Amino acid sequence: MAKSKNDTKQNNFFEKFANAATKFTGSSIAFIAATAIVILWAVTGPLFNYSETWQLVINTGTTIITFLMVFLIQKAQNKDGKAIQLKLNELIAAHEKASNRMVDIEDLTEKDLDQLHKFYVTLATLAKKEADIHCSHSIDVAQELNELKLKTNKHFKHQK
């Protein structure tokens, strides 16, 4: 299903708005402005006899801003995360000795990721034992060593 020009314009507008809002809200000016609003609100307390309406103003304002910011922050994190994953995928694809199986692993299940994590913890332990800091351990080398062990050691169970 093709997107219409109007949909693309709306997406571009939202993208530009979200980027600008995220950039502004992370700035020193935004922090100073928010701090000034809170100080102004606190100073006006005696003027309004610290009424429930006076308290409701700050509570409602901060709740609405927090609610909206959650979505802006999530959008920014999703975009940053995707960009980082693409950069890492490019590095993996460009390096001849890197395992291409690591590309797009963010789509694996939590169980699969835990298994990979345990593997890399083991590799880190092996690397610490090496005298040469330039020695490399990779999934492919580990798999080749495992296959060699399976062939040469009769007490290992062969899996098919």
Describe this protein with a few key phrases.
160 residues; mainly alpha; 5 helices; 0% strand; elongated
Describe the fold and architecture:
With 160 residues, the chain is mostly helical. Helix content is 71%, strand content 0%. 0% of the residues are buried. The mean pLDDT is 84. The protein has five helices and no strands. Helix 1 packs across helix 3 (52-94). The radius of gyration is 27 Å and the shape is elongated. It has helices at 5-25, 28-43, 52-94, 110-129, 139-152.
Q: What is the 3D form?
A: elongated
The arrangement of helices and strands along the chain is: HHHHH
Distance between the termini: 43 Å
The gyration radius over C-alpha positions equals 27 Å
Report the average pLDDT across residues: 84
Biggest β-sheet strands, sense, barrel:
none
β content, as a range?
A: under 5%
Number of helices: 5
Helical residue percent band: over 70%
Q: Pick out the low-confidence regions.
A: none
Number of strands: 0
Classify the secondary structure makeup into a structural class: mainly alpha
Summarize the structure.
The protein contains 5 helices and no strands.
